[in-house]
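Hi support team,

I've been running sequence recovery on a batch of backbones for a student project. Most finish fine, but this one hangs at about 90% for roughly twenty minutes before it completes. I'm not sure whether the input is malformed or the queue is just slow. I've pasted the structure tokens below so you can try to reproduce it. Let me know if you need the job ID as well.

Thanks,
M.K.
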């Protein structure tokens, strides 16, 4: 009734920059959201003073509700085991798919809202991972300590009402942010190629909890290739911007609710460590072009600690395989990259038998003897520079000779054409 009298009220913000759609999304009022979207659909992308869209506030409101319900997780193992015949009670479950319905309605209003960032640079997907990660992580740790990695753990994760709602909302945001947007908004959600979509999105990769949840629930997809013939590890190796390392602190040993095997202070790992922990054979599988993951990470300027070390540890024989496109060994690919670190070059050089024999022969001819590892490292790099630069200079000289020969040939042909005929 109010919107009929004054339709502009649907897009009028208050002092904080919040429109009526912001307030309705925060309280997850589906009926009011539908009316406001019908009256003013462009309000979906409107940002508040701090850069929050209605989708950002819908996620924050859902996180507040779910955090209160997740605090009721049982502390003892006996209380945590739910019989397979017993279903979760209606009073313990959150409102059925309320968050999923609200998020879908807002995305349908304007799919561009998925790319709007707040003042902290967070998209709605990153915002969702940021606020839901503590809730889901607590429940996942509880499931792991109760069922110890068995099939019952996966069943628990799929049947838990809070994790189920978070997982469905996460699927919707990920699929809508990729090329599957039209399919997601009109059809039901599907877990098909969910792992492939996660590795394509940096916001997903920087969330340890949701990356781990995806691998647990969709582990079989690690062995499946997409329509381009790539495994998820190939897509991860081709990422231009490397995701940050997962660094977090676990509770100290004084807290009794933490199992003994988890009592440590710091945990640090990267996305490559996490994915290879679930499927190590992928490190030795080539992509559609016949390139190994080690070649892909080196082509995308990865450093030793980012992904090269993990791939070398899982599949050390990759250092002896030439790249299909350039024909270079991995250490040569690292030498071409100007941003490659000294550690990456040295480790790849020493791990390559072909180049090690070349270095040993050069040392024997020069009679050099290094006193320590630093001198050995520098001498190997000098040999590498001579080896690569020598090959490069030889190629350049051949090209210059061919160019001069072709130019002289063209000059002679032109002079022959201009010469007058003698009768």
């Amino acid at each position: 009734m109010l919107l009929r009298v004054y339709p502009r009220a649907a897009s009028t913000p208050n002092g904080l920059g919040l429109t009526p759609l912001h307030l309705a999304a925060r309280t997850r009022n589906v009926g009011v959201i539908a009316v406001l979207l019908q009256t003013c659909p462009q309000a979906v992308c409107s940002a508040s003073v701090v850069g929050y869209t209605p989708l950002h506030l819908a996620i924050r409101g859902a996180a507040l509700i779910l955090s209160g319900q997740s605090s009721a997780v049982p502390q003892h193992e006996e209380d945590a085991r739910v019989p397979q015949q017993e279903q979760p009670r209606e009073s313990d479950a959150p409102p059925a798919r309320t968050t999923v319905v609200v998020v879908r309605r807002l995305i349908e209003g304007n799919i561009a809202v998925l790319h709007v960032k707040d003042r902290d640079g967070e998209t709605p997907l990153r915002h969702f991972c940021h606020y839901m990660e503590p809730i889901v992580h607590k429940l996942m740790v509880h499931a792991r300590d109760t069922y110890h990695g068995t099939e019952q753990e996966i069943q628990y994760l799929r049947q838990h009402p809070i994790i189920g709602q978070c997982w469905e909302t996460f699927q919707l945001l990920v699929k809508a942010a990729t090329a599957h947007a039209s399919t997601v908004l009109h059809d039901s959600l599907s877990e098909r190629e969910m792992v492939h979509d996660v590795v394509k999105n940096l916001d997903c990769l920087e969330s340890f909890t949701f990356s781990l949840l995806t691998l647990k629930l969709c582990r079989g997809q690690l062995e499946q290739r997409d329509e381009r013939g790539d495994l998820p590890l190939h897509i991860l190796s081709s990422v231009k911007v490397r995701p940050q390392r997962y660094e977090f602190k676990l509770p100290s040993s004084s807290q009794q609710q933490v199992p003994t095997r988890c009592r440590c202070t710091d945990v640090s790992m990267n996305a490559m460590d996490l994915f290879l922990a679930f499927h190590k054979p992928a490190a030795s599988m080539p992509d559609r072009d016949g390139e190994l993951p080690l070649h892909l990470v080196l082509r995308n300027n990865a450093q030793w600690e980012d992904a090269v070390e993990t791939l070398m540890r899982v599949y050390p024989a990759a250092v002896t395989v030439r790249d299909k496109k350039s024909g270079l060994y991995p250490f040569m690919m690292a030498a071409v990259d100007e941003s490659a670190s000294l550690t990456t070059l040295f480790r790849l050089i020493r791990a390559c038998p072909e180049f090690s024999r070349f270095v040993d022969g050069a040392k024997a001819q020069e009679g050099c003897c290094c006193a320590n590892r630093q001198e050995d490292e520098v001498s190997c790099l000098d040999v590498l520079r001579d080896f690569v630069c020598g090959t490069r200079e030889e190629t350049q000289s051949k090209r210059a000779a061919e160019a001069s020969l072709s130019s002289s040939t063209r000059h002679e042909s032109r002079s022959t054409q201009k010469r007058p005929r003698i009768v």
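--
Follow-up from support: It reproduced on our side and the slowdown came from queue contention, not your input. The longest strand covers residues 246-249. No action needed from you.
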